[in-house]
Amino acid sequence: MKLNSAAVIIAILLCAQGPSGYSTAAQNPHRASNGLIAFTLRDQNRKLQIFTENPDGSNQKQLTFEGDNGRPAWSPDGKKITFGAYRDGKRWVGVMEADGSNQKLIAEGTDPDWSPDGRQIAFSSADGQIWVMSTDGSNKLQVTRSATHKSGPSWSPEGKRMVFTLVGNRASRTDFKPQVGIMNSDGTNERILTTEDRTNVHIEPDGSVTVLETAHDAGVPAWSPVEDKIAFFSGIARQHGQVWAINADGTGSKQLTETRGSSEDPSWSPDGKQILFSTGRSGRNELWVMDAEGKNQRKVSNMEAYPYPGRATWQPVR
C-alpha cells in the first residue's frame, strides 16, 4: 500500500506519542545537564534563606538576605531563579539572577514554577487558585476557578499540563485530605491523579516488610522534565511520609523511599535521572539525592524549612 506524505507524518507522530497522547519526542529536544542546586538554610537571625551549592554539597553561597525565602525554581536556561518570599506579613513571588543579583518581587502569591518555554511563571494565590504570569510579573491570568484549594503547580515537559496539591478538606486542621491534582495548563479537565490506595512500607535487612503508616494523603508533586512521570509525597500530611512516583495517567504508583523518618518535597534533576528530596531520617532535616528509581540514596547537605517547604531545585545547564 502506498502512503502519501501527510499519512506518513501522521503515522510517525502517533508512534512517538506516549500513553497520555502527548509526543514524548517533543517534550525535551535538548536535554539539559545538571548544574548547581538551590536549597534553603537559616541565616544567623534564624531566617530562612536561599543558597546554592555544588551537587556534592560544596561551595555553598547565600543568595537572599531579607525576610524569609524558599521554594526556589530555576528558569529553563538556568540563568534565573523564581522563589517565594515572606515580607511584612505577605507572601510574594520573586525573581533573581542565578548569582542572587537583581532581586524583584513581582506578584503576591507563593509556590512559583517556571514554564518549560521560559515565558511564564505559574504560582498559587492566597485564595487557593493557580495563576500564570509573564516572568516580569505582567499579564497575570487566573487559571483555576473551582471550589477546591490548590497550591504548588508543576508544569509538564511540553507545557500543556500541570500537577498541583489539591486540598479536599481545607476546613480541618488535622485531616485536610490533600491529593495530587492534574489539569490542562489552561485550567480545564481538572481531576485527582492519586486515586489509588497506598501504604508506606520499610524493607528490613532480612527481607521482611514493616508497615510505616497509611499513605492516603498526597501532595507536593514535581513533574519530570523529560517524561510523563511525577514524584510526590505520600503519607500523613504534616506528620510523616515517603517519596513516591506515578505516571501522568495515574498508573504505576511506586514507593521510592522507605525511611523511618519522613522523606518529602521531591524535585527532579534536569536530565531526569535523579531526584532531590528532604528527609529527617537522621533526626534533623537534610537534603538527599537518589536515582529516579529510588536507588543509591545519599546525603548532599543539611537544609532547613518553614515557612516554606524544604524543596531544593537543580539548575539546568544547556
Describe this structure in words.
- The chain has 318 residues and is mainly beta.
- It has one domain (32-317): Neuraminidase.
- 4% of the residues lie in helices and 47% in strands.
- The protein has one helix and 26 strands.
- The strands form seven sheets. It has a four-stranded antiparallel sheet, with no helix packed on it. The chain has a four-stranded antiparallel sheet with strand order 4-5-6-7, with no helix packed on it. It has a four-stranded antiparallel sheet with strand order 8-9-10-11, with no helix packed on it.
- A hairpin with a 7-residue loop joins β2 and β3.
- The longest helix has 12 residues, at 5-16.
- The radius of gyration is 19 Å and the shape is globular.
- The protein starts with a helix and ends with a strand.
- Mean pLDDT is 89; it is low at 1-20 and 23-29.
